[in-house]
């Protein structure tokens, strides 16, 4: 790229406009934290409903089983996502610069 084209970008603030667009991005760590909090809520809800069932306070065993299964599947999905993220991180570390 010739120097004239770079100067054109700087003079017209095109470079600055591109960097300002990146400030609207959502923080990845906040998304992960929110999803893990929801996962924890599902696990706690399943535990509470199971305790209610053991005590005999549960009105519907079907609802308890659905809640427990939903919590189990959510945890399984979270573990698979974690595995993929770790795998991607390891692959990035193997790349030679």
What would you note in describing this structure?
- There is one protein chain.
- The protein is mostly helical and 97 residues long.
- It has one domain.
- The chain contains 4 helices and no strands.
- The two termini are 23 Å apart.
According to DSSP, the number of beta strands is: 0
Count of discrete alpha- or pi-helical segments spanning 4 or more residues: 4
Strand content: under 5%
Mean pLDDT: 84
Radius of gyration, whole Å: 24 Å
Helix content: over 70%
Q: What general outline do the C-alpha atoms trace?
A: elongated
Write the layout of secondary structure elements.
Elements: H1 3-11, H2 14-21, H3 28-55, H4 61-94
Key terms:
single chain
Short note summarizing the structure:
The chain has 97 residues and is mostly helical. The protein is 81% helix and 0% strand.
């Amino acid at each position: 790229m010739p120097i004239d084209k770079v100067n054109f970008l700087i003079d017209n603030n095109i470079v600055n406009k591109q960097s300002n667009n990146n400030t609207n991005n959502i923080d990845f760590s906040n998304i992960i934290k929110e999803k893990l909090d929801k996962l924890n809520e599902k696990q706690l809800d399943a535990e509470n409903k199971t305790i209610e069932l053991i005590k005999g306070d549960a009105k519907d065993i079907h609802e308890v089983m659905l809640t427990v299964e939903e919590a189990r599947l959510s945890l399984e999905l979270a573990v698979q996502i974690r595995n993929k993220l770790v795998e991607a991180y390891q692959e990035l570390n193997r790349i030679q610069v």
